[in-house]
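pls ignore typos typing on phone
pyridoxal-5'-phosphate + seq
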Amino acid sequence: MNGQRLYEHARDTRIPGAVQLRSKLPEGHAPEQWPAYFRSAQGIEIVDYDGRSFQDWSAHGIGAALLGYRDPDVTAAVRRCVDDGSFSFLNPAEEVELADRLCAIHPWAECVRFTRSGGEIMAVGVRIARATTGRSKVAICGYHGWHDWYIAANLGDSDALSGLLMPGLDPKGVPRELRGTALPFAFDDRAAFDAIIAEHGDDLACVVMEPCRYVDPAPGFLEHVRDEAHRVGALLMLDEITIGFRRHFGGSHLRLGVEPDLATFAKSLGNGHPMAAVIGTRAAMDGAHESFISSTYWTERVGPVAALATLKKHEQVDLPGHVDRMGRRILEVWRRHIDALALPLTISSNYPCFATFGLPEHERAELMLLFVQEMLRRGFLAKPTVYVTLAHTEENLEAYDPAVGEVFALMADAIRRDDVKARLGGPVAMSGFKRLV
Ligand SMILES: Cc1ncc(COP(=O)(O)O)c(C=O)c1O
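k done
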């Protein structure tokens, strides 16, 4: 059975929803063309189920392998751990070392709890905030995972479950009784945030948001959110799950100079090995003493070992400097080809570490598919947004640059001849869910 057949079997008969992470649905990239499964991965190289090799110039692990796939130092530490035994009836001492390490990196934090994934650590953080404050409501901004506390924001105003705030995040299965407990506001929207404080401040447990995503907050916005939250007795929890360590060692809140009450990390913390942490002040974490927060596999040892090795590596390399530099190099490559071909593409990234080009609205889906399809044929998993990692090097760029040149030329020709659709080898990608911000 080849990879496509295996995927169809999974999707059509065995695995409802087809995959375990929406972003890894082949239909979100190039239906019938994008490979679903991998056999091995290292650096930015992936060998798919059918044995074909690709360089990954897409969302590369959705931010979960900032050092590149199978980083040799992290892998060596994990191997030693597996050889010694990664699980027993006693706890891994490495979790204490990791807790100390995270508090040393974030001097404002005094206590830490761990899980193994992002959505899970957000649920724990919200549980702790609710337990500490004795309140129920949560103000949210951005994406924070799949759990009920968060998807409750998508429960409609009426009894129907279809009044979606975020198209694509269907709240089916989330108790309607949670309606009104997760209150969304948009990034940098002071008026919307202030309205939540005015109306729900008395029962607000915490405000949950990323310190930044693709843009920095307006000057003073994060400080305003924190001060207003504190004024009404709520906590501020900053979500560093995707942005953490990418732009600044320890997370962007350190770069922006805003100390929250709680902060969460996952994805890049274990560099491909499941690990997540919520750090906080002693006062904010107080609720964790009483609330029942407990799970068997939060006691395995690979996660903390991988995280310690990952943090050590981050201290040896200038990761934010590297991803910023390489991101700028990618933008230069795109710009050179775009200008030479007079292609109607725009360069739209604010942070080069998420290098992004934009496609013309009227044929966006078709041109995107043409780009993805033609890059696949040349051995690249490529999308208009690249999550740059330490493993993206100048040497890799030397292979990527001429491939992009060829594919952009083909796209320019298709636009000129008005035959983009005729060149497509499969259906266009389905659109993903829209973030609130
Ligand atoms: C900011 C943010 N928070 C939380 C999550 C959820 O993390 P996970 O997919 O590990 O559950 C994500 C995932 O994309 C994220 O970007």
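Residues 394-417 form the longest helix (24 residues). The pocket of pyridoxal-5'-phosphate is lined by residues 117-119, 122, 142-145, 210, 239, 241-242, 266 (CB under 6 Å). more later
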